[in-house]
Amino acid sequence: MAQSNPPFMSGVPELLLLRLLDDKEMYGYELVRSIRDVTNEAISLGEGVIYPVLHSLERNGSLKSKRKAVGGRTRVYYAVTKKGRDRLAKLQSDWARIQGGVSTALEGASA
Amino acid sequence: MAQSNPPFMSGVPELLLLRLLDDKEMYGYELVRSIRDVTNEAISLGEGVIYPVLHSLERNGSLKSKRKAVGGRTRVYYAVTKKGRDRLAKLQSDWARIQGGVSTALEGASA
DNA sequence: TGAAATACCTATTAGTTCGAGGTATCTTCG
DNA sequence: CGAAGATACCTCGAACTAATAGGTATTTCA
Questions:
Q1: Each residue of B58-110: pLDDT tens digit?
Q2: Is A12 within 8 Å of B98 when comparing Cβ atoms?
Q3: B26 in helix, strand or coil?
Q4: Can you tell me which residue has its alpha carbon closest to the C1' of nucleotide C7?
Q5: Chain B contacts of A40, Cβ < 8 Å?
Q6: Out of A9, A38, A103, whose CB is closest to B108?
Q7: Which residues pair with A64 in a beta bridge?
Q8: What is the arithmetic mean of pLDDT over A62-80?
Q9: For residues A94 and A25, what is the distance between their CA atoms, to the nearest angstrom?
């Protein structure tokens, strides 16, 4: 991993994409902006991160896509499958566990 | 990264080690158990994770070590340096940002 | 006309966690 | 006494994956 957003990002792109797409179908370019929005600017993922994850999720059956022509441009919309929802559930529970563990650890105040 | 604990672990070992050592000096083997404890079993890191991170933190000046012989065995105690405290502060703020962003994103209920 | 936004995509780099394996000493128990 | 297990250190190789940079093409707006 090369930094930027830095640490603590592993698994985050996948989680966010599944979470957003679980609400409604979206296309890649839209997801890039959407992630900035829903995280309140806290997390920003470039297209170079989004597209590969989208493709890999589709390959493993978590997403399915369909192309739509919109005013000369082509958009690829992604939707979550049953498998994707399962994957999302697992990621959410993993996230909850790690997040909880770190929070607990950080709390034991050093002050 | 090979899984196990799985996703969401990048940067976590470094953060936890610095956080624990900021409270008091400890040695590697002790840290392995300590992390299990302070995270309430949520996170468990093997020696194969701990030692390399410890070494790399020492190399970049975030930690300093001293050996102590304790009943025939040798323990290597690590303490946080000024640089390590700065690094810890940065990691904590990064963590807060990412954690906050993900939480916000996950909340927009899909129900 | 030209710049910026929209929209897609890939290859390379680099950082790092994880598992497995290895040495050696001390303690405990049968 | 001998064996097993805990203590304590360490390294190597594999696997994963985020980030950057670069690339194409169309539409919109000054």
A1: 999 999 999 999 988 999 999 999 999 999 999 999 999 999 999 999 997 55
A2: yes
A3: strand
A4: A29
A5: 100-101, 104
A6: A38
A7: A79
A8: 95
A9: 24
Structural tokens at position A42: 């806290």
- Amino acid (1-letter code) at residue B111: A
The count of other CB atoms within 10 Å of the CB of residue B40 is: 12
- Tokens at A21, concatenated: 């797409």
The angle formed by the CA atoms of residues A45, B17 and A99, to the nearest 5 degrees, is: 45
Q: Can you give the three-state secondary structure of A59-110, one letter per residue?
A: HCCCEEEEEEEECCEEEEEEEECHHHHHHHHHHHHHHHHHHHHHHHHHHCCC
Q: Which nucleotide is nearest to B74 (CA to C1')?
A: D8
| C1’ D18 / CA B23, Å | 32
Q: Do B1 and A7 touch (CB under 8 A)?
A: no
Under 8 Å between Cβ of A14 and A91: yes
A85 touches strand C (CB under 7 A): no
